[in-house]
Design goal:
mainly alpha
Length: 173
């Protein structure tokens, strides 16, 4: 996994943990680090270079600063070798990769389809996102279950609700 992907993922998680329902912006991260690190700072341009991949490595000082801010081990903030394969792969590593992939997909749809973006982020933030997809597959394979679930979870307005008068502002004369 690339360092740039890890930092984007950490911004997403940190935004969620802080109740933003979105990734923290790079500028928000910079400000929060300055406030929480007692004078130690990182520039937004440096963070941008790390995320874009223009700067593939961190200085040790910056690695420790970011690790402390995001509450991860400093060893997490290194780029994995491209041929890195381990026989002892844990489900957590696989879940992290799946979650990163989902977050990246959500970012692509953020402006065009906010509902889809929220749904993808909800899956990425779930403790077992793999299981969410397996459940979705089972729902889709069961005839008409999707439509029945949709009707239960997103009921159409009743006739009484449709007949409720709506308040209109009086036109000023």
């Amino acid at each position: 996994m690339k360092l740039s992907d890890k930092i984007r993922y950490l911004r997403e998680v940190e935004g969620s943990l802080r109740g933003l329902d979105r990734a923290m912006t790079q500028q928000e991260v910079v400000r929060a680090i300055a406030e929480e690190s007692k004078g130690k700072t990182i520039s937004q341009s440096y963070l941008s270079q790390l995320e874009s991949g223009a700067r593939p490595h961190l200085t040790n000082t910056t690695r420790l600063l970011l690790a402390r801010f995001f509450k991860v081990h400093p060893g997490y903030l290194v780029e994995d070798p491209s041929d890195f394969q381990s026989e002892l792969r844990t489900s957590e590593v696989m879940d992290d990769k799946l979650d990163l992939w989902i977050v990246a997909g959500a970012e692509r749809f953020g402006r065009q389809d906010p509902e889809l973006c929220r749904a993808l982020l909800a899956i990425a933030h779930h403790a077992d996102s793999r299981r969410c997809f397996l459940l979705l597959e089972a729902v889709l394979k069961t005839p008409s279950l999707l439509d029945r679930l949709w009707a239960v979870l997103h009921p159409a307005p009743t006739a009484a609700e449709e007949l409720k008068p709506t308040r209109k502002k009086k036109a000023s004369q």
